[in-house]
Amino acid sequence: MNLILLGPPGAGKGTQAKWLEDHYGILQLSTGDMLRSEVASGSELGEQAKEVMEMGGLVSDELILNMIFSRMKHSNYKSGCILDGFPRTTPQAEALDKMLVENDIKIDHVIEMRVDDEAMVERITGRYTCSECGMGYHDSFKKPKVEEVCDNCGGIEFVRRADDNTETVRSRLSNYHEQTEPIISYYGDKGILRSVDGMQAIDEVTKQLKRVIG
Ligand code: AP5
User: Fold this and answer.
1) Tell me, what's the pLDDT at 77?
2) CA pseudo-torsion sign 93, 182, 194, 142
3) What are phi and psi of 54, to 5 degrees?
4) The whole model's pTM is what?
5) What percent of the chain has a predicted confidence (pLDDT) above 70?
6) What's the mean pLDDT in 121-136?
7) Which residue puts its alpha carbon closest to atom 47 of ligand 1?
8) Which residues are catalytic, by number?
9) Region 186-208: what's the mean pLDDT?
10) Ligand 1: does its nearest atom lie under 6 Å from the Cβ of 187?
């Protein structure tokens, strides 16, 4: 099964992708995570992406397409994947369609997570992750069961993303409305678009996803 999760920064794509991975046995492919790991490694690709990401802009389509397509063709993803953060522009959606036809791959569901912009600022500025295993948390909405200890791996070090500040979030939200929202109708026209209410609590959003996917 192949899924696309669509939604603005903070909508809960990464949070729900982790549950989908465990439940359906398919892997998450997050272009944001891939870019952050390129930046951390100091690669040429990371150098090209770093400044744009820190300003809340979108990395070039060419760079993204090269990066994601080589990963999607890897044998780990033959049984399917969850695309998180891709496609994000109409040229990316069109290039993905072409690649899918050429490789005989089908997208089963495109799921839009509907949320309000103002709530996303609070979600993003309160977000942090475990440095060991990457498990995501939130200052108000998802605290570790034992304070400052990761539920998943017992790690005690946590990190916050460089682009998770109020100013950058606003620029990311505005880019979403201008450049990513048009692809919602692109997939609506194809008849594979579904929506969930991303303003509900995390567990409730998960239940909605389960109902949509089956
Ligand atoms: P990326 O990493 O994709 O970031 P994003 O789309 O901005 O999305 P986020 O990861 O911030 O949000 P999310 O929806 O995953 O929310 P989460 O589940 O963490 O991209 C980063 C940058 O890389 C981009 O700005 C761009 O520069 C570049 N880039 C990436 N892909 C690109 C592409 N295709 N083309 C061009 N450039 C690209 O949840 C947020 C917080 O809220 C968490 O703390 C969570 O615990 C909490 N939470 C989640 N759900 C709920 C809920 N229902 N109720 C309460 N709290 C919740």
Assistant:
1) 82
2) positive
3) -65, -25
4) 0.94
5) 100
6) 95
7) 123
8) 13, 88, 127, 161, 172
9) 96
10) no
Q: Is the CB of 50 under 6 A from ligand 1?
A: no
**What's residue 214's pLDDT?**
87
User: Taking residues 55-61, what's their average pLDDT?
Assistant: 96
Residue recorded with tokens 């709530």: 119
The whole-number pLDDT of residue 117 equals 93
Q: Distance between CA 70 and CA 58 in Å, rounded? A: 20
Q: Does 201 sit in the ligand 1 pocket, CB within 6 Å?
A: yes
Compute the average pLDDT of residues 33-47: 96
Q: Does 38 have pLDDT greater than 90?
A: yes
Q: Ligand 1, from 21, 53, 115, 123: best to mutate by most atoms within 8 Å of Cβ? A: 123
DSSP calls for the chain: --EEEE--TTSSHHHHHHHHHHHH--EEEEHHHHHHHHHHHT-HHHHHHHHHHHHT----HHHHHHHHHHHHTSGGGTT-EEEES---SHHHHHHHHHHHHHTT----EEEEEE--HHHHHHHHHTEEEETTT--EEETTTB--SBTTB-TTT----EE--TT-SHHHHHHHHHHIIIIITHHHHHHHHHT-EEEEETTS-HHHHHHHHHHHH-
